[in-house]
Every structure is written in structure tokens, then in C-alpha cells.
Amino acid sequence: MDVLKAEIARKRKLLEQKQLVDDKKKYFRRGELNAKDTEEVLQKVGYKKQESVEAPRAEGAYSFVADGQNILPRAEVIRRLRERGEPVLLFGETELEAFDRLRICEISQPEANRGFRNDFQEAMEQVDAAYLQEMFANTPTAKEDKKSDFAELDETISWESIQTMAQKMGRNKDYDMDVIITLLTFLLKLWNDQIANYTKHEKMSTKVKMTRVIYTQTKEYVKPLFRKLKHHTLPEDILDSLRDICKHLLNRNYISASDAYLEMAIGNAPWPIGVTMVGIHARTGREKIFSKNVAHVMNDETQRKYIQGLKRLMTKCQEYFPTDPSKCVEYVSKKDRE
């Protein structure tokens, strides 16, 4: 009996400490006890109440903040969870635990909604955003906005000056890389100027919009190549092929340039996937499987993209600097193009 009385006294003292009962209040609700227990647990782990002034909250609703970190509003948490296809609230889960679950999802899967997208769709979005900016009078036009991309290109650079620079190619690798990046940047600038010179009515057409998308995508593709050329870190086997391609382009021999491109892209080796040693003994065809002859397009995705972007620039070069039909790849006259 004494044990029972001691337990009752302990329970009463605990309730008085939690300020649930006193001399005037002889009873309490079970929900009040649960709320007090929850508040004590949250205080132990470092959470405290947040007084929100942005939006009024219902009576009894809490918004907690951790050490120096604010919690998103409940409506925003629900919206982000629904965007990711996650349940808004699991069984027995509090709003705070739902917010923690959202944070874990955003850290582990930052691009959950963009899993089925590709770079062409991203380029399309960039073109749409640029078109919307052009519609406002206070924003710069595409021509003004793109000047910064070619700031490093000297205005005195022309096709003839690049041809003069190319006469000294083959002596110094760093010099060759500078000539190559100058030529490719010059072609990109011509392409950008062609797009910028379209009228507003032409820019609304589907054909010009697709041209702008392909240009935006190509510019993103060749950025890794430009970076390697600028820092003089391009592999020697790819540099040899690019040197040949640029020489043929400057001579307007587009068929030979296409052959050099195919040799770089898919190679002409018996084992194009990159096998460079087939045994411990030297074979008759051993010299045909060096790394220069393998398919560089199969190495990695980044290399495949800038090789594809290079082919687009080669096609544009043939369009801007035409030559005899016998030296062109898939020759199309200017009348047929229009």
C-alpha cells in the first residue's frame, strides 16, 4: 500500500512541475500532457519555438527552428514534397519530421524532377528565356547579351588573318591550340551574328527557334574543348586530328576535313573501342591500334559532345565559306537553302 501511495505522490508532483494541475485546477486533458512531453523532448534536442510574423498560425500550432536554421512554411514543404512524388505526411510523422524528410530528399536527389530531361530541352529552355527577355524593352537584346561570350576574340581577326596564322602550324603545340581556338571561336561568332541579325518576325518562326536551340546546345558542348585548348591541356592524339581538320577547313577542302573528323571520331582501327595491347608479342597489325586510331567518341560523354559540336561548326564553316561542289560534303546551293 505504501508503494502505491508513493507512486501516486510522484505522479502528482510530476504533474505539478508541468503545471498541469494546481489548487484551482483538479483535472487536465490527455492532449495537454502529450504537448508538454513533446515540448520537453524538442527542448532537449535543441529546438525552440519560432514566432512567425509572416502568416498567422492556428492555436496550438508550433513552428520550430534548429540551431541557426529556419524551417520552411508548411505550405512550401507540402508543395515540394508533392513535386517529388513523396507523401505529404507519413503515419505518425510530425511536421518537423516531414521537413527533415524533405531535406534528405533534396540532398540525396537534387535533380529529381529533371531526370527525364536532356540537354536539348535545357537548350530550348535557355532560348525561351532569352526570347522572353528580348520582349521587354529594359532588357538587353540577344546581340548585346552575347558580346561578352566573344570578348576574348580580337575584332581584327578575320578569315584571312587566321589563314596566315595557320601557315606556322605544326611547329609548336601551344601555338597550334591557340590557332584552333581562334578559328572555332570565329565560327561561333559568325553563327551568333547570323542569329542576332534575324528580324523579330523571323525569330518567332519555328525554324529560327530551332537554329537558336542548336547554337545554344553547341556552345555548351564545345566549352570543355575550349577550356582544354585555352589551358593547353588537350591530348596529343586529338590535337593531331584537330590540326588536320583546321588546315583542311582553312583550305576549304571540306571532304578532307570530314575524313579527318571521322578518323578522330570513330577511328579506323580493327578494335575501335580502345584495345591497344592484344598480347605479349608484337603482331603484324600492332601499329594499327595505337590510341590515335581508336574511336574517341566512345571515351566519355563529354568528349562525345564536343566532337559533335565540332562537326556542327564544320558544317557552318562550309555554309559561310563555300567552295567548289567537288570539295563540299552534301553540297547545297544557296538558292536551295533559301
Topology at a glance:
Blueprint (H helix, E strand, L loop, with lengths): L1 H16 L12 H15 L3 E2 L14 E2 L8 H10 L11 H14 L10 H16 L7 H4 L13 H8 L6 H24 L3 H4 L2 H16 L1 H8 L5 H15 L3 H12 L35 H20 L13 H4 L1
Antiparallel strand pairs: 1-2
Helix pairs in contact: 3-4, 5-10, 7-8, 8-10, 8-12, 8-14, 10-14, 12-13, 13-14
Written account of the structure:
This protein has 338 residues and is mainly α. The chain has three domains: 1-33, no CATH class; 74-108, MYOD Basic-Helix-Loop-Helix Domain, subunit B; 114-135 and 150-272 and 294-336, Up-down Bundle (RNA Binding Protein, Prp18, Chain A), CATH 1.20.940. Helices cover 55% and strands 1% of the residues. It has 15 helices and two strands. It has helices at residues 2-17, 30-44, 74-83, 95-108, 119-134, 142-145, 159-166, 173-196, 200-203, 206-221, 223-230, 236-250, 254-265, 301-320, 334-337, and strands spanning 48-49, 64-65. The protein has a two-stranded antiparallel sheet with strand order 1-2. Helix 10 packs across helix 14, helix 12 (236-250) runs antiparallel to helix 13 (254-265) and helix 13 (254-265) runs antiparallel to helix 14. The longest helix has 24 residues, at 173-196. It is elongated. The chain starts with a helix and ends with a helix. Residues 50-68 and 137-148 have low confidence and may be disordered. Residues 72-122 form the Pre-mRNA processing factor 4 (PRP4)-like domain. It is found in: Nucleus speckle. Belongs to the PRP18 family. Keywords: mRNA processing, mRNA splicing, Nucleus, Spliceosome. Its main location: nucleus.
